[in-house]
Sequence to fold (1640 residues):
Amino acid sequence: MSGTGSDGVYVESTIIMTTVRVIAPFVFTFGLFVMFHGAESAGGGFQGGVLVAAAVLLLAFAFGIDATRAWLAGPLTRTAIAGGGAAFALIGVGAIVLDGAFLEYVAYDVGSTGVKYGIELVELGIGAVVSGVLVGLFFSLASGDFTTSTGDAPDNERDAATPGGEEA
Amino acid sequence: MIDLLATHFNYLAVVALLAIGLYGVTASPNLVKKIIGLNVFQVGIFLFFVTSGFVDGAAPPLLGHGSAPYASPLPHVLILTAIVVGVSLTAVALALVVRIYDAYGTLDEDAIEEVRTYD
Amino acid sequence: MTEILSLRPLAAVLLPAIGVLAIVALRRNPDVREGATILTALATFGIVASIVPATLSGDVYVTRLGTLVPGIELTLSADPLGMIFALVASLLWLVTSFYSIGYMRGLDEHSQTRYFAAFAGSVGAALGVSFASNLVSLYVFYELLTVATYPLVAHDESETAREAGRKYLTYTFGGGVAVLAGAVLVFWTTGTVAFTPGGIAALASADPVIARAAFALLAGGFGVKAALMPVHSWLPDAMVAPTPVSGLLHAVAVVKSGVFGVARVVLDVFGPETISELGVGLPLAAVAALTILVASVIALRQDNLKRRLAYSTISQLSYIVLGLGILSPTSLVGGLLHIPAHAFMKLTLFFCAGAIHVETHTDNISEMAGIGRRMPVTMAAFAVASLGMAGLPLVAGFVSKWYLLIGSIDSGTAVFAGVLFLSGLLNIGYFWPIVYQAFFQTADDSDAKPLVEFPLGGQRVRADGGDPVDRDEEDDGTAGGDDDQTDPADTESSAGDDQTDPNGGADPDTGLDAGALIDTTPTEGTVEPDIDPSEGESQVELEAKVEGEYAVDRHPSDHRRDERGDDDPAPADAVPDTEHHADGTDDGHSHHGGAPASGWEARGFGAETTWFMLGPITVAAAGAVALGIAPRAMVFLAVIQRVVFEVTGVAV
Amino acid sequence: MTSEAIVLAAVLTFSALGAAAAILLRDVLNAIIAFAAFSFGIATVWVLLAAPDVALTEAAVGAGITTVFFLVTIAKTVRPGGERLFERIEWRSVAVVAILSGALLATVGSLPAVGAADAPVATSPVTEYYLANAYSETGVENAVTAVLAAYRGFDTFGEATVVISAGVAVLLVLRQEAYV
Amino acid sequence: MTDALPLLVVVPIVFALAPIAVDRVRENTGWLAAAAAAVAHLGLSFSVLGTVLGSGRTSYAVGGYAPPFGIELVADGVSAVLVVLVSAVTLATVVYARSVGPRSNTFYSELLVLTAGISGVVVTGDLFNLYVFLEITGLATYALVATGRSPAAALAGLKYLLVGTIGASLYLLGVGYLYISTGTLNMADLAGLLPAVGYDSPVLLTGFALLVVGLGVKTALFPLHTWQPDAYAESPTSVTAYISALVSTAAAYALFRVIYTVFTPTFDAAVPAALDVLVVLASVSVVVGSVLAVLQSDLKRMLAYSSVAQFGLVVAGFAVVNQTAAIGGLVHLVGHAVMKAGLFVAVGALATVAGGRTVDDLAGMADRAPVVSGAFAVLSFALVGVPPAVGFAGKWHIVLGAVEAGRWIVAGVAVVSTLLTLAYFARVLERLYFRDAPVAAGVADRPDAATASDTDAALTADGSGSGGAAGADNNPVDAVPTVPPQARVVVVVAAVAAVVLGVFATDLISVLEPVVEVSFQ
Fold:
């Protein structure tokens, strides 16, 4: 993966960048579709979240990890995680407040489709959590400057970065 | 025996995957490959569950999109959850690997052991 | 027997516990702290004493504390048997409290708060033992007693003391575990563990194998604290503790809790009838008889006074067990009466030993020639108590032994009567020389005492006694049960070398040299079979004698260095040759044992030591005499007769 | 053996070989590629076993995200030199593995046949209840989604927690304070 | 039906999200969220306990879907007691971590996730749901172990992750075996269906074995304990205290559920050999764990091996399969959690003051940290089984139950373990109280002892020589570290709790007993 190193090994490739620029929005949209459409066909929040994350990862491979990181910097990721998790929990707790059991969608009493909406909201929450966490994980793993870093990491780290190269 | 092979092939594959995975975890000197082994091991178990929900000629449990028999949805749900758990574990394991490498400069289990005793 | 709900038994147990808190809280001010000890002891004794009238009239005060574990109540009940022990413990605690103050201050000991707190805790646990109304509650307090006593045993913080503490914990917890196992068996077979005078009925019909196993576990478990042989060796080692501890705990509270446990098992769990049906009484009596004799013989060979007293304790405790094992009503009375009798007498003896130690730093009998001049009252009390130990009339020991004697003849086991006679002789054998040389000899003209100098016997613990280097062998490190042996001992032992050693030839010549002497592990095979392995260290001396002299004497400085090799950080004595500190015991106060060069000075009445020590000594000795002259007036006999009557239906 | 079964058996065999290769290949990059291939094979197996949701997830996770994570990791670390193509066999591990596989193989015969319509799972009231009521009770056609989010919503809540936990865990492990 | 049951899981997770959302804006968020969550959790736990005491066993259908179709949460005497334990330990850990750290927001998030996971394990009545919560617990624990500063902590975390995941996977496979033969995952439902399958069918037996081995790994029974000493020794003390108190406890509790709720005592009656094997495994664990504990010089490792032994005892109590022993196992499970958490905190505090955490480093610490030393002594004796502390109540029932059932091996092992436990604690206590602190160890005075170097001196030095030197180097007199007050509070509370639990063991048992009774009917 040519773009992996946060230390400038990244080599710009026009073909990849163009391809990704075209594909990424599609992947992103497909991810959202899978997230929402889990009720009717295969798919759901988790799969959709993974696809959304994949779109971001594609961008990172195409435009460089640092660039993507800078683009994403800010509260976006953690809002996605905390918001998604909270949405799921609150939908569950809300049912308790309305005198139902935890996650009892029927308690919201919005007719027969209410359950379905509840489920889709939950799927959306999961999607947010998953995409947020996966993107976060990727950047965490890729960055690797630890506060504990003892500074004795061998030099071959960079050499090793290259063969990992061209995947995904 | 042949009959068993025909009707229970999935379970043999389950055992094979479990064996390969466990071997990978215990025998691989490289920490990354241990984690690969762990993933294989878990997939063996997933296969067990999904097989249990399968009925010959069954349609996927998309109600209204096919006709009975449907495969049992429950094992699929369980395995979806288990896959998510698996990938989370893998991510944490890899983070640990990165940190271990940062500290010891190697991912070889025996070499790390040497470094530790040398300390 | 009517039960009266009352908080008094609980109060008796709780008061010392409150005392512990008070003592810890008042640690900044020693005088007030000691005041708290005395007050607690006084109050505790007051409460126990206040129960006596009820006990005599057949009432039992009971405090119910709810269920301990399902099926087992935690109830404290001041029944007659428990009252015997409670009275002894609380009364003597009061006496000992005064003595402790004198002793601890006289020696300017460290960690006095811990000492007094643990002391109060121990007595509280002992009272709990006495009032426990079933096996499991008894076990609860029995273990608490162990825990509370441990800091006292290890008080000295020397390697020897730690060693002794370790051994103490190991032995007594081992015993405790056996007790627990026995209690489980009893509970399993009968569904109850409550004490019932005359025994739990269901045990009589239980599977005899299980019942015997339960008895063996219980008697064996309690036997550890009762220092029955062969599980006695913690007791001499525990003598490393300060003398008041040795006195109260290792002659009264702790060891008596073991004996008391055996009494509970015999009288209130199994009952004499069941025991004789099971045929386990005789083995118990036999073990006790053997212990009496062997411990007496070993006592003869101890030069360290406290160790001699310790072996004497082992021997005397077995009188009680013997009485319980013989099972006849009269012997039961004798055995039980020996609980207070021995307590008073032995306490006197220990007090005397402690007073001598505080005043003159002398611990070895061989150095006590003429000490009667220096400490007349002390040695007089010692003489009285010794006579009692030997069973001479007018002192407490006589009464209990008399009952024992009658009982053993009654029950047709006259062989035990023989044992009693023989042991009486041995008692005289090991006490008389002390008294004799204290009053009728001086340091200069004291001669070797034949029994003490008998070549096999360790005439005294080696001067560097208890050297921890031998610790890998279980019984070493015990040697120096007590503090400071000094050069004079060495000198004398060298004198002893002149005698021919009949066994010398039999000893393997291990080719000792100066360095190897200390860590030579005694070969057990050369020790006489009936002698406790802890005597191994004397064997080392014998081997040394074969060499002609002590390595220590040849290389005194080496010797001292060896001793200090352990963790004791205290700086060593600056002046060689005048004194040898036993390892680790010399933190802060150094000792010169034996008579000063000019001989013991004569001191008048009351001038020999502080009244904090003299008072308790005289009180304890007076108690021993009173118990001998008017046993009935001292309450104990009356209570005991009630116990035996309830158990056997026979009025003695 | 039906043709579907033969296809299934073939894909399973391919996957198992992929797994074995992932373990035995000495070079970690090769191993990761083999692992990705294995994941694709397994995703196919899920399709053949009428589990499209699982298949989609496996493709996205096993062949996708997990592989990317592995690659990022080896990019951050080091690969052992490739003088040999395969690892040496560790016989002690083989023994441990043999015990487990032996025990499991012994029970294979007692398990219900694959795809049997009368197997306990297929006939269980739980399965039948889901198939009969999931749509009417939740209005969701995909029974898997219905069970996932409604009937076993608590599992899914746990699943989301695992994901969050993993995110936090990686920060903790790598001693970072923020995600991006 | 009490809503507190799902909230026990949900509330900590919601609070765990708070530090993520605010992130670095406020430094304190993590601790505040954790403290608030712990207090709320405690309230919920007591409400669950109150419900159980009032109306007995309560079941909660999540989402309103009746079991076995939906997930069932169960509050009975055992789970109610354990959730209270979880809350109490969480609160104590949060208080303790305030002073000694780790202090990062992520740490507290993960701690709350762990709390949620353990609560889930305790309240769930569904085998697969149990797996999910086991994994939440596991994942959070792996990460928390790796928060230790040393590289060895990361290694310990990874080792734990590998072994723990294999264990959890084996558990999942076991669930699969039960599922494939019954088609249900609900514990109560399974209990009804298993007899029809036939307890002696190879599938069920394999399932049982897999469940036991999987949970045995998580409980750290010998020889499946290999992850545990490293994990305990390398993690920060707050983490060690928490996981030693709760993580293995949760796994052992799950084992209890499997044996008593899913398989029920009738399984033992049908296939006695199955639990015989477990009895032997557990007994070996007790003995080997204790012996290994005696051999350790690092205190945290000593306590870790001690846990191996104590959990062996707990599982032995379960595996005896009679009412008395099962209750004994449960009491010891709860008691051990309290005692071990207190002991770890005490060791952490003492080690801070002493500048090292080997047995020898603690020499003379009783003078410098009297309160913690005293509490340590109380907890040690409690764990040894000195009455009236809670260690005794557990052991008594286990031994009594073992005797009733004729499993003499368990009775014997319990008795032997008492002495071994004493052996490894007594030497620590002796160092604490009856040895002088090595600081001024007469170093000036020592050369003659050191150079004397004859065998005797070497033998008697007993390691304290080196300890003394180290102590003198590490502890300049002017900068003596002290015990943080929070640690003191936690240790003392643990010690008091150990005694109080013992004194009121009857009440504890009366809460636990109905659960065990039901499974025997």
Q: What stands out?
A: Chain A has one domain: 14-143.
